[in-house]
Amino acid sequence: GKIALKAFLKEGYTVDNSSRDHFWIADEPKDLGGSDRGPKPIELLLSSLASCKLITMQMYASRKGWDIGEVDIELEILDVKETTIIEKKLTFRNELDEKQRQRLIEISGRCPVAKMLKQSVEFKIVQCGL
What we know:
Layout: E1 6-9, E2 15-19, E3 22-26, H1 41-64, E4 71-80, E5 84-92, H2 98-108, H3 112-117, E6 121-129
Parallel strand pairs: 5-6
Antiparallel strand pairs: 1-2, 2-3, 4-5
Helix pairs in contact: 1-2
């Protein structure tokens, strides 16, 4: 279906967001003049990207019959010059062979959010823990 979002600026920098039947807040920290009632917009972007990567890996693993168990992902924005660099650290909790891990890392880079951002963001994989 159609992907749509509505956002409304409230008092200060607080923004009410909604999509389908879901509601959440974005805000700025107090030291930047906000009320700190929710994540910063850039944190929400990283959350969208991380969630998309994890869900995409799980969908792929399910199709392959792999039990990947819990997977942790950490994303950090390193540099914002001509190209934004996002560092990705994956930790697989289940025993997976090297081929499976490499395939899942590759698949995570093909998620819809990453594809959408690819034009303006460069992704860098630093470390993938077990």
